[in-house]
Amino acid sequence: MEERTPLIAGNWKMYKTGNEAVETAEKLLELVSDVETTDIMIAPTFTSLALVSKVIGNSNIALGAQNIYWEKEGAFTGEISGPMLVSAGCQYVIIGHSERRQYFGETNNTVNKKIFAATKSGLIPIVCVGETAAERNEEKTFSVLDKQIEKGLEGLTLDEHQSIVLAYEPVWAIGTGKTATPDQVQEVHFYLRDLIEKRFGNMLAKTIRILYGGSVKPDNVSELMALPDIDGALVGGASLQPDSFSKIINF
Ligand code: 13P
């Protein structure tokens, strides 16, 4: 890895009530308080953000949201804006997760709007890309990724990009216990970095962090983190327990 600081991010999805989220954050904080060389982020549900923010304060754990809407405010029932996330203590926001694309109609176009909204609010977007099993079987992995990057990042300038994180999450590896092989992960991460270089130049390609997500566990994280183009992990299931998540953070 170049001089990129690893980022281990926990996506808690729609798990944990406020009390449970607070308890998990408290335990995690105890377990990882001495970690200095890896960035850590947890993304609880919206209703737990402000509560968890109080627990982690200015510690080495950063807070992230799982979604954002692109307007600042207005009559948009059920949506949450960038400034609202910032005021709840967020530094990161996950955008375009495959579950949002699959179940909630998220497209490369809405992903693009959300990335603009996030960077405008000072949030670091973690932009998720990845192919389904059918797309991989049909050898469409790279064309799918091309489109997700091209449309998703359309119109962004280099400055904005410098505070963007990409997450490669093959849909077939999410929550299935089926991790992509190190060769598959490295191949895609190298390809994504190359795409970034072609579109935005060498500087950004060298500095942008590309996370892997999909059944990351304590027993496979070190193998993944040893790969040259893997700069961290976006963890679902194994981030819900402080014990397993702290082991991943200490890869
Ligand atoms: P799992 O780690 O449960 O496979 O989930 C990955 C993920 O979707 C993280 O965003």
Structure commentary:
By secondary structure, the chain is of the alpha/beta class. It has helices spanning 18-32, 46-56, 82-87, 98-103, 108-121, 133-137, 141-152, 158-162, 182-200, 202-207, 221-225, 242-249; strands at residues 7-11, 39-43, 61-65, 92-95, 124-129, 165-168, 209-213, 232-235. It has an 8-stranded parallel beta barrel, surrounded by 6 helices. Helix 1 (18-32) packs parallel to helix 2, helix 1 packs parallel to helix 12 and helix 5 (108-121) packs across helix 7 (141-152). 41% of the residues are buried. The structure holds 1,3-dihydroxyacetonephosphate. Residues 11, 97, 169, 174-175, 213-216, 234-238 line the site of 1,3-dihydroxyacetonephosphate (13P). 1,3-dihydroxyacetonephosphate binds at residues 11, 97, 169, 174-175, 213-216, 234-238.
What helical percentage do the residues reach? 40-55%
List segments where confidence is low: pLDDT < 50 over at least 5 consecutive residues. Answer: none
- Cofactors and ligands: 1,3-dihydroxyacetonephosphate
Helix-strand string: EHEHEHEHHEHHHEHHEHEH
User: If strands are numbered along the chain, what order do they take across the biggest sheet?
Assistant: 1-2-3-4-5-6-7-8
**How much of the residues is beta strand, in percent?**
15-25%
Structural class: alpha/beta
Helix count, per DSSP? 12
